[in-house]
Write a structure and sequence with these properties.
Alpha-Beta Plaits, alpha+beta
Length: 109
C-alpha cells in the first residue's frame, strides 16, 4: 500500500511524505504507483517553479518527502489542496486499498 502523510497547521502545510508501493501490478505496470508519483512529483515541481516557494524534497524508489521550510504562498496551498483531492480520488480506485491518505493537524507554539 502507498501511504501519503500530510502535515498541516490551520490552512497551511509543513510537509508531506509518500511511502510504499501499491502492489496492484508488477513494477513498471502499476497504475496506482504511476498516478501517485505523477501527482505528487508534479505538485512539488509546480510549487517550486510556478509559486516560487522554497521546497526541500528528496525521493527514491517508493519514497518521497517534501518540506516547506518557509511555509507556502496561497498558490502553493491551492496546489497542495488539489494534490490531496486527486490522491483521495485515486484512493477510491476499484474498492481495494492501494493508497491511503492521512492528514495530520500539527499544533504551533
Amino acid at each position: 500500500m502507498i501511504t501519503v502523510r500530510v502535515k498541516r497547521t490551520g490552512d497551511s502545510f509543513s510537509m508531506f511524505q509518500v511511502t510504499g508501493h501499491a502492489g496492484y501490478a508488477q513494477s513498471g505496470y502499476d497504475i496506482y504507483c504511476a498516478a501517485v508519483s505523477a501527482l505528487t512529483l508534479n505538485t512539488v515541481n509546480s510549487i517550486e517553479v510556478l509559486c516560487k516557494d522554497r521546497v526541500d524534497a528528496k525521493d527514491r524508489d517508493g519514497f518521497l518527502i517534501c518540506r516547506f521550510p518557509e511555509g507556502l504562498s496561497d498558490g502553493g496551498k491551492l496546489l497542495m489542496d488539489s494534490m490531496i483531492m486527486g490522491l483521495r480520488q485515486i484512493s477510491e480506485g476499484d474498492g481495494k486499498t492501494h493508497v491511503k491518505v492521512i492528514i495530520e493537524e500539527v499544533q504551533t507554539c
